[in-house]
Amino acid sequence: MDSVKLQAYGKINLSLDVLRQREDGYHDVRMIMQTVKLHDNIDMQKTKDPEIKLTTNLSFLPVNENNLMYRAARMLIDEFDIKEGVSMQLKKVIPVSAGMAGGSTDAASVLYGMNKLFNLRLSTEDLKLRGVKLGADVPFCLTRGTALSEGIGEVLTPLKKLPSCPIVLAKPAISVSTKFVYQNLHVNDLPAEAHPDVDAVIAALEKQDVTEVAVNMGNILETVTCKKYPEIELIKDAMKKLGAVNAIMSGSGPTVFGIFSDVAEAKKCYEALRFGKYRNLAKQVYLTEPWR
Fold this sequence. Notes:
Blueprint: E1 3-21, E2 27-47, E3 52-56, H1 68-79, E4 85-91, H2 102-117, H3 124-131, H4 138-143, E5 146-151, E6 155-158, E7 167-171, H5 178-183, H6 198-207, H7 210-215, E8 218-219, H8 222-228, H9 231-241, E9 246-249, E10 256-259, H10 263-274, E11 284-288
Parallel strand pairs: 1-8, 3-4
Antiparallel strand pairs: 1-2, 2-4, 2-5, 5-6, 7-10, 7-11, 9-10
Helix pairs in contact: 1-2, 2-3
């Protein structure tokens, strides 16, 4: 195999709780990860020239070791003493610095692609062990679907899949530093009611009840991000007015997603945020659904 075409899918968090800050500075989390169909496209080719070449459709993205795709390729080239090189072309669609694991899913796809191109014969578990060194979300991006994520995000338990439903995504014209959010969370000082009911979402998934899933969604990181960026709450409110069962922030933000029970209402919400009354709230708006 000399080339491969890949789709790198984004994720949302149906529930995100942070249990405590550990002595090593990391945070123990308990969250439900969900892959969505919104995706980046990655083309990879073997090259005789022993270099890593990366191009993207966005001029502001790094194309060197500061890019997780590059580091993923370098990791396997070094480990397996690969004498050839690889050329990669990224068409970025998932919003950048948006709480949707865009960088992690691209890195996961490169690990998968390198494994295929160079016949490394690594299992998914093998790739996950390497992926976590690149980022806590990379292992989930390799497996996809619906999963409970614990530890620092690397301990994954598959859950029943989120049933098909329309999802509207909206990212305001800001980028959020995950480091800033966690540094300002002070989770050990938060009251019990600030923590979302992750188990209620798991129970709703077991029943395959989309409405119950949506009603019980929550994200503890909103206690930081929404205070600093009030436009996040404005987008959430707009989605609910436009028919979303519920709307919350994904990851550390600032992307907001709304789950709908009706396709027509989801389309109206998308159009209102993209072209209509609420078009000034978000810079990027997408209509998608769960990846199954």
